[in-house]
Every structure is written in structure tokens, then in C-alpha cells.
């Protein structure tokens, strides 16, 4: 299918992109395009203006400092192949390595993926479990948004209409054990359920993919572990914060059971 007609604009800087957004209230930002363009072809989204930020150099790259600072336009493959990410946060490298197919990983961007706020996507849950911070820039300057406060509903985030993501800051794992579990029918499919987990001393983080209208931070699992519960008992709390929905792939009961199984597997691997 073809998209509807639209005006195409390509800014060279973040400030220019923000100015164009202010001038065109009905505009959409185009990054990698693997979420927006299919929606446009299906006429689910028909923006009058597309602002292509794909060539803004300041939004690209990975800086390895006290935390990993990843430009919003950094592609999945660039993250997956980064020695700095592999050394400092291997869980993030692994989750980007299994996103979609090779074409998606070559063109899709971390910022675009997160801004789309799809609860069935792997990276929102991964950055949520890791305690990441998102940096947004708008006409009033820059602000930081905790991943735990970013996702507000299905495909809905805390970004204001005149803001754009510019950077994602991910804490280093500092020797934590980790695991990424993804159950799907085919390698390139969305996860029926996914789990990201890490453990270090008495601390842990667990987040779920496709277990609600937003990515789910399974805080009850971490609380149970901190209270001395076994992995098996903690995994029984996997769906405590979740609101799984039935679809063609799974019933609510099946998703709930699968979440408990995958959390147990993930915690076991993260603890080894």
C-alpha cells in the first residue's frame, strides 16, 4: 500500500528539527521509520508533514562514561556490535541483537523504538529493567525522564508534542548477572512474552515484554528476592504488576503462566 501525501523536511540539527516541529503541529518525526512508515501505509497514521531527523549527527553515537550515553539515532546493530555496550551492559547488547530481522536492526534506532512506546517491543522493557533515563529536548530546554515514568499507556509516552528524544543513559551493570528471555513463534516475531532480569548482590531488576499496555516493571519479584524468597517463589510474583491481554497467540492464563516460567529461567541464569 502507498502512504498518503505529505510534505518532507530534513533538518540538519536538533534545534532546526525543534523549530520545524513548532511550525508544523501535525508533523511526525521520522527516525528509522520501521514503526511509522508501516502505519502510514496502512493509513493508521496520516501526518501532513514528515520531519526526517536521520542525518542529524549529534543524535548518533555511544559515549562510555559513568554510564552509557547512547544517542537516540544510534541503530540497533550499532548497539549490539559495540564493545563498550557489551562490556558495560551486555543485557542491552543482547536485546538489540534479537530485535526484528537484519534490515530492522540496520535501520531501526533506539530512540525511535522507545518513543514509539510499544509494550510488545523488547527495548522499552530492557531499559526499564536497567533503570535507564531518557533525555528529551524541546523549546523549553532539556529534561530527564526516568524509564519508569516514561510509559503512560498503549503507544503513549511522557514526551510532549513539541519534544524529541535525544539521548538514552543506561547505568553500567558492574558485574551483575543478567538474562534476556524471549518466547516467540519465529525469530523475527514480536515476543508473546519476554523477560529481562539482572541480579547483583541483594539488588535486582525484572521487566516484562508484552504483558500489558505498557512495559511492566515486575517490582514484586525484586521485592520478594530482597526479602529472602527463593527464585521459584519470587517468580510466582511475575504477573503481579501486569495486565496481560488475550490475542491470537495466547490467552491471559497462558501469558501469565509463561511469564512465571520465563522469570524463573531468567533469574536462574542471572544468578549463575
What does this 3D model show about the protein?
With 272 residues, the protein is an alpha+beta fold. It folds into three domains: 7-52, Uridine Diphospho-n-acetylenolpyruvylglucosamine Reductase, domain 2 (2-Layer Sandwich), CATH 3.30.43; 57-171, Uridine Diphospho-n-acetylenolpyruvylglucosamine Reductase, domain 3 (2-Layer Sandwich), CATH 3.30.465.10; 177-271, Enolase-like, domain 1 (2-Layer Sandwich). Helix content is 34%, strand content 25%. The chain has helices spanning 14-23, 36-41, 76-80, 83-88, 90-97, 102-107, 110-116, 122-129, 147-150, 219-226, 231-235, 252-271, and strands at 7-9, 27-30, 49-52, 62-64, 67-71, 133-138, 141-146, 151-153, 156-157, 164-171, 177-183, 193-200, 203-209, 216-217. A hairpin with a 2-residue loop joins strand 12 (193-200) and strand 13 (203-209). Helix 5 packs antiparallel against helix 8 (122-129).
Amino acid at each position: 500500500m502507498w502512504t498518503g501525501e505529505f510534505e518532507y523536511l530534513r533538518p540538519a540539527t536538533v534545534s532546526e528539527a525543534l523549530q520545524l516541529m513548532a511550525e508544523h503541529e501535525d508533523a511526525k518525526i521520522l527516525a528509522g521509520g520501521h514503526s511509522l512508515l508501516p502505519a502510514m501505509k496502512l493509513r493508521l497514521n496520516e501526518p501532513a508533514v514528515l520531519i526526517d531527523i536521520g542525518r542529524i549527527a549529534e543524535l548518533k553515537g555511544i559515549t562510555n562514561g559513568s554510564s552509557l550515553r547512547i544517542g537516540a539515532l544510534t541503530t540497533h546493530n550499532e548497539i549490539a556490535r559495540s564493545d563498550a555496550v557489551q562490556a558495560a551492559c551486555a543485557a542491552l547488547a543482547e536485546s538489540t541483537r534479537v530485535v526484528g530481522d537484519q534490515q530492522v536492526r540496520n535501520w531501526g534506532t533506539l530512540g525511535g523504538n522507545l518513543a514509539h512506546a510499544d509494550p510488545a517491543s523488547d527495548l522499552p522493557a530492557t531499559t526499564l529493567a536497567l533503570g535507564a533515563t531518557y533525555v528529551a529536548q524541546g523549546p523549553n530546554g532539556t529534561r530527564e525522564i526516568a524509564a519508569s515514568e516514561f510509559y503512560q499507556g498503549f503507544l503513549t509516552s511522557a514526551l510532549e508534542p513539541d519534544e524529541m528524544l535525544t539521548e538514552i543513559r543506561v547505568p553500567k551493570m558492574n558485574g551483575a548477572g543478567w538474562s534476556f528471555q524471549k518466547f516467540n513463534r519465529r525469530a523475527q516475531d514480536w515476543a508473546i512474552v519476554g523477560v529481562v532480569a539482572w541480579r547483583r548482590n541483594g539488588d535486582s531488576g525484572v521487566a516484562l515484554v508484552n504483558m500489558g499496555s505498557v512495559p511492566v516493571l515486575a517490582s514484586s519479584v525484586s521485592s520478594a528476592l530482597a526479602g529472602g524468597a527463593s527464585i521459584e517463589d519470587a517468580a510466582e510474583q511475575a504477573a503481579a504488576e501486569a495486565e496481560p491481554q488475550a490475542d491470537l497467540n495466547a490467552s491471559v492464563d497462558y501469558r501469565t503462566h509463561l511469564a512465571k516460567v520465563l522469570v524463573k529461567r531468567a533469574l536462574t541464569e542471572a544468578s549463575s
